[in-house]
């Protein structure tokens, strides 16, 4: 947790050193498009992982169903 906070602070300092304003990047139309694109990628990736996990759980459930003979 502390590593993450320190990493974020270092990134902000580096961006400040190069004169890059995070607020202007986020508020710019290009920044909005990029963040929207990344959000869509993350959402689609999550759906793939979720669907794969559900299919795997169904597969495991089918392996461990009791076997019935003739009834």
Describe the fold and architecture.
The model has no long low-confidence stretch (mean pLDDT 90). The protein contains three helices and no strands. It is mainly alpha-helical. The chain has helices at residues 2-17, 22-27, 29-63.
Record the SSE blueprint:
Blueprint: H1 2-17, H2 22-27, H3 29-63
- On the 0 to 100 scale, the average pLDDT is 90
Alpha carbon gyration radius: 23 Å
Helix content: over 70%
Query: Could you give a short account of the major beta sheet?
Result: none
Report how far the terminal alpha carbons are from each other: 56 Å
Q: Rough shape?
A: elongated
> What is the beta-strand fraction?
under 5%
How many beta-strand runs? Answer: 0
Structural class by secondary-structure content: mainly alpha
Ranges where pLDDT stays below 50 over 5 or more residues in a row are none
Order of helices and strands: HHH
Note the total helix count.
3
Could you give a quick summary of the protein structure above?
This protein has 71 residues and is mainly alpha-helical. It has 3 helices and no strands.
Keywords:
about 70 residues; about 80% helix
């Amino acid at each position: 947790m502390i590593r993450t906070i320190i990493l974020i602070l270092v990134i902000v300092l580096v961006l400040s050193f190069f004169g890059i304003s995070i607020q202007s990047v986020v508020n710019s139309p290009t920044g909005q498009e990029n963040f929207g694109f990344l959000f869509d990628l993350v959402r689609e990736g999550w759906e793939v992982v979720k669907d794969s996990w559900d299919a795997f759980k169904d597969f495991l459930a089918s392996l461990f169903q009791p076997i019935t003979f003739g009834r």
